[in-house]
Amino acid sequence: MSNQDEKRSVVVESVFPHPQEKVWRALTESPLLAQWLMKNDFEPKVGRKFQFRAEPVPGWSGLVDCEVKVINPLKELLYSWEAMGHVSTVLWTLTPTEGGTHLRMEHGSFGPDQEAAYKGATYGWRSFLGQLEKLLEGDGL
Predict the structure, then answer these.
(1) CATH for 10-137?
(2) Under 8 Å between Cβ of 102 and 95
(3) Nearest alpha-carbon partner for 125 in 7, 9, 10, 8
(4) Residue 77, Cα to own-chain centre: how many angstroms?
(5) pLDDT at residue 104, rounded to an integer
(6) Which residues of 56-66 are buried (b: 16+ CB within 10 A; e: fewer)?
(7) Burial level of 107, CB count in 10 A (0-12/13-18/19+)?
(8) 3-class DSSP state for residue 77?
(9) What would the DSSP string read from start to end of 10-70?
(10) Is the pLDDT assigned to residue 67 strictly greater than 50?
(11) What is the pLDDT of residues 72-130, one digit of tens each?
(12) CB 40: neighbour CB atoms within 10 A?
């Protein structure tokens, strides 16, 4: 495989001092997702097509078309992610830890010609995970 063919993924990991059930709810309940990620019509059903919706910006409609691919309750969630002509996947993995939950998000794959999308996703997911942390710390969950 040449460098031109190499794909990169954005990986963000965090340990939350909360049980898997609480973190899972934040990942799979549409109103909670809207509080930390984007407005959506998500339902945790394999095959369910849904959209994330944000304010449009120049060069992006604000829409992300998705489809639920895998649900392993409290452990794993995988969905496709299509935005700006780039099709990828987002995989969430939850692992119990002493006193909490280790959450890993992998958004892949970005080719060498998608440097701007890769950098944007890297920044965006770190910001989103910060918002998730605030939601989990609050009283609304």
Answers:
(1) 3.30.530.20
(2) yes
(3) 10
(4) 9
(5) 98
(6) eeeeeeeebeb
(7) buried
(8) strand
(9) EEEEEEESS-HHHHHHHHH-HHHHHHHS-EE---S-TT-EEEEE---BTTB-SEEEEEEEE
(10) yes
(11) 999 999 999 998 888 999 999 999 999 999 999 999 989 888 888 898 899 999 999 99
(12) 17
Helices then strands, counting H and E runs in the chain, come out as: 3, 7
Buried-exposed string 71-99: b where 16+ CB fall within 10 A, e elsewhere:
beebeebbbebebeeeebbbbbebeeeee
In percent, how much of the chain has pLDDT > 90? 77
pTM for this predicted structure: 0.92
Identify the residue with better confidence: 141 or 58.
Answer: 58
The two structure tokens encoding residue 92: 């969430």
Q: Which tokens belong to 133?
A: 């942390």
Band of residue 1 on the pLDDT scale cut at 50, 70, 90: very low
Residue spans of the domains in the chain: they are 10-137
How far does CA 85 lie from the centroid of its chain?
Answer: 18
Distance CA 101, CA 14 (A): 8
* Crossing angle of the two packed helices 115-137 and 20-28, in degrees rounded to 10: 130
